[in-house]
Amino acid sequence: MRKMLEGVRVVQLANFVAAAATGRFLADHGAEVIIVEPEKGDPIRYMNEQEGRPFSVLENTSWEYLNGCKKGLSVNTKTPEGKAALLKLLETTDVLITNWRLAALQRAGLDYDTLKEKYPRLVYSMILGYGKTGPDKDLPGFDFTAFYARGGYAENMRRRGQSCTWSAGLGDNNTGLVLAAGIMTALYTREKTGEGDLVTASLYETAIFNQSVMMQSTQYEGSFTLDYPITKYEDKNPFNSSYETKEGRLVQCSAPAYNDKYEAFVKSIGREDLIGDERFFPQVNMLNGHREEFIREIEESVIKLSVDEFMDNLKTNDIPHSLCYSWKEIMDDPQAKAIGAFYEVECSNGAKRQVTHTPVRFESEGELPTDRAPLIGENSREILKSIGYSDADVDKMIADGVLYESGPSDYEK
């Protein structure tokens, strides 16, 4: 089956997560994505504290999910020869992805304004922390800061008096897919006009967009969102909360239409005696002085039920719900496996691990690819030869320290 982006060449001049997630999406759908790294490689190659995996370049599941199905070029772009090689590569490139800050790009002569005249068909795409304009456009941005903290999650999604533990990479992955959508739009337009474009996406604005419903409501006096952060006893709709069962597991419910679902919900917690209770129904009565009282009634009822009992009741009464899964449970979930959320990769040291796929499928493409991610400069020779360099040219660049190539044996102690 033909992949959607077959024949599209992408250069990923970036590090860490967000830009790599963009590149992985494009690679999954057929693009040739070339990672450009310095000799020591991307810093994420050496990070393992979240995973507990071996501290080894040869086995890195974060690197695999972000950079599988790509090629690796390691070149010192600070040398004249390395810079020339990169510019020659861009002559055959459709998309450039970068997360370098603007000042660094300008110093290197790789900013959009410098390149757009020389490469008019190039789709130049950037992952930014805070956007390309404004007083904070040059600040460094990571998802913990620009997405979670500045973007409103850390303050508004916690319970009052508590902090939250955030999942590393969530903001990066999200923003990376947003940029991929922009790139696809730009490529489509280029086919009609022949002209490339500058495409940007920022961690900060992606976080803002994700929270549109809640954020926009703060414009109205009296909006409950103005009270955030709140405790669990201040929820305006207790049917949209999670409750602890006899085993200590949380089950999340979702019934936005409080009045319509009131009778069904109280039946689900085994409290038919609450049907028609004017303290809690209609919703306006519950909000008028009885909110905490009702939530405690629900808690005290659900804690007597097992997970299976509570979930069976919710299903019988047509209340949307789900057990709150751990990351380990998701890895073992038959539904996740059925949709192809994970695939097995053989790492460069021979270890076989499960890593995540990007979450978009096209029926005409069939299964997503599962090739492992490249080692530092693993495809340097192949890539330079594809743009006209000879083996002798490549050998000289390696000898001069301009170019680097490696295989598994280069990392053995």
Query: Strand portion, in percent?
Result: 5-15%
Q: Please give the count of helices.
A: 18
Q: Give the strand order of the largest sheet, numbering strands 1, 2, ... along the chain.
A: 6-5-4-1-2-3-12
Question: N- to C-terminal separation?
Answer: 42 Å
Shape category = elongated
In helices, the fraction of residues equals 25-40%
Quick structural summary:
By secondary structure, the chain is α/β, with parallel strands linked by helices. The protein has 18 helices and twelve strands.
Structure commentary:
The mean pLDDT is 95. The chain is of the alpha/beta class. The chain is elongated, with a radius of gyration of 26 Å. The strands form 3 sheets. The chain has a 7-stranded mixed β-sheet, with helices on both faces. The chain has a 3-stranded antiparallel β-sheet with strand order 7-8-9, with helices on one face. It has helices at 18-28, 61-67, 80-90, 102-108, 112-115, 143-149, 153-156, 170-193, 203-210, 212-217, 258-268, 283-287, 291-302, 307-316, 327-331, 334-338, 380-386, 391-399; strands spanning 9-13, 32-37, 71-75, 95-98, 123-128, 197-202, 242-244, 250-253, 321-323, 342-346, 352-356, 403-404. 37% of the residues lie in helices and 13% in strands. It starts with 8 loop residues before the first strand and ends in a 9-residue tail after the last strand. Helix 1 (18-28) packs across helix 8. Helix 1 links the parallel strand 1 and strand 2 (32-37).
